């Protein structure tokens, strides 16, 4: 794999992350309003950045292809409140749309499930992998694997050994199993997005850096 490198995050890259979020979950299919789509992706991306101590963008040539963010408790988060402000600003604009309000209600329910699932696991970990995504057109090319290897090396240097992460039935959770992660527990619930009722399962996985 040629000409790949990890690049540091800056505020200008928030829009890139928002586009990666849109691409990963094909959100343009469910959120038809372009402004609402932009606000939803921006709010989620800013929230991720606001709680992450470790942020990685993998660049191949001139293209950013993969992203990974992780969090360790009691470690300083650079400009945390600045990104929370961006998140809350985007959320404010989402409130003007019926579907936006429904999305926010869903996200609150989803976050509550994450908290309950962590309690259900009843284990302590050194760090959390908050988000790991690769542009769909660059998947299955080894970029994600390369990024995780870099992340694992950095965690090992900081004596971080146990990692946990959340994923769900709308993601390729099987890739974590192929990578050696172990499912600890799961939880399911029905959600309503405007008039659409759907069932969501969330899984907590763990792995150890050796």
UniProtKB/TrEMBL annotation:
Residues passing through the membrane, by range: 77-97
Keyword tRNA processing annotated: no
UniProt-recorded Gene Ontology molecular function terms: acyltransferase activity
SUPFAM superfamilies registered for this protein in UniProt: Acyl-CoA N-acyltransferases (Nat)
Record keywords: Acyltransferase, Membrane, Transferase, Transmembrane, Transmembrane helix
Domain of life according to the entry: Bacteria
EC identifiers of the protein: 2.3.1.-
Protein name: GNAT family N-acetyltransferase
């Amino acid at each position: 794999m040629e000409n790949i490198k990890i690049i540091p995050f800056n505020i200008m890259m928030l829009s890139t992350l928002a586009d990666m979020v849109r691409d990963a979950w094909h959100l343009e299919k469910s959120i038809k309003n372009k402004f609402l789509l932009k606000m939803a992706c921006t709010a989620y991306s800013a929230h991720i950045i606001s709680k992450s101590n470790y942020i990685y963008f993998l660049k191949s040539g001139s293209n950013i292809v993969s992203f990974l963010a992780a969090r360790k408790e009691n470690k300083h988060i650079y400009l945390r409140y600045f990104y929370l402000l961006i998140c809350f600003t985007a959320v404010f604009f989402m409130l003007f749309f019926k579907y936006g309000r429904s999305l926010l209600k869903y996200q609150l329910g989803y976050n509550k499930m994450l908290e309950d699932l962590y309690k259900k696991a009843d284990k302590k970990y050194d760090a959390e992998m908050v988000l790991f995504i690769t542009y769909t057109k660059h998947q299955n090319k080894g970029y994600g694997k390369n990024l995780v290897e870099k992340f694992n090396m950095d965690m090992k240097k900081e004596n971080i050994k146990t990692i946990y992460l959340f994923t769900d039935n709308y993601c390729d959770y099987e890739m974590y199993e192929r990578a050696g992660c172990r499912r600890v527990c799961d939880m399911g619930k029905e959600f309503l997005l405007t008039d659409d009722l759907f069932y969501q399962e969330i899984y907590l996985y763990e792995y150890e850096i050796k």
